Amino acid sequence: MELAKEIAKGAEEEGAEVRIKRVRETLPQELQSRIPLDKVEDIPEVTLEDMKWADGFAIGSPTRYGNIAGALKTFLDTTAVLWKDNLLYGKPVTFFTEASTIHGGHETTILTMSTYAYHFGMVIVPVGYGIPELFQTTTGGGPYGATHLGSKEELDEMERKIARFQGKRIAEVAKKLKS
Questions:
Q1: Which of 14, 46, 58, 86 is most buried, with most CB under 10 Å away?
Q2: How many domains does the chain have?
C-alpha cells in the first residue's frame, strides 16, 4: 500500500486528482489472517465506475509466486463490460508490485498485469530508465515499474523516489493524452 501512496503523491504533484482504491479480497476467510488486511481496511474498494472515471491508472499487486494476486485477477475479469464498450481504450496505465525476495517475481508480476492493458488497447507507461535512482538500487524497481522488497518493513528512499517518479509520469501522460 505504501508504494501506491507514493505513486499517488507523485501524481498529485503533477496536479492529478487521485483516488486510491483496493480490490475485494477473495482468499478464504481462514487464510486472510495471514495477510496484512488491516493496512487496507479503510481504503474503499474499486468499482467499474472508478475505472470509467479515471484518465489513467497505476495498478499494483503483491507478487504471488511470480504472478498477480487472485483478488486482482478476479476484479480485472469483471471489467469485460468496459472492454466490450472500449471504455478504457487509449487510457494510460502503469504497474507496480512488491515481493518478499529480490528474485521473487517483481518483473513477471508487472508483465502479467500488463496483458490486460493490451486487450483494452491501453497505453502502457513504464518507468523506463528515466530516473537515475534505477541505476543505484537493487530493490526499488526497474524499467517496468516501482517495486518494494517486502522483507523490509518500510520503503527505502530509493523506492520512494522511483514510485513518485512513476506517479508523475503517469499523470503527465494522462494529461497529454486527454488534451
A1: 58
A2: 1
Q: Which domain holds residue 54?
A: 2-178
The reported pTM is 0.93
Separation CA 95–CA 126 (nearest Å): 8
| Nearest Cα to Cα of residue 3 among 50, 70, 62 | 62
- The CATH number covering residue 58 comes to 3.40.50.360
In whole angstroms, what is the distance from residue 98 CA to residue 63 CA?
A: 6
Crossing angle between the packed helical segments 2-13 and 157-178, to the nearest 10 degrees: 50
Which residues lie closer than 8 Å to 82 by C-beta, 6 or more apart?
Answer: 48, 51, 52, 88, 120
| pLDDT (tens digit per residue) in 58-103 | 999 999 899 999 999 999 999 999 999 999 999 999 999 999 888 8
How many Cα neighbours within 13 Å face the side chain of 162? 32
| Strand bridging mode 57-62 / 145-149 | unpaired
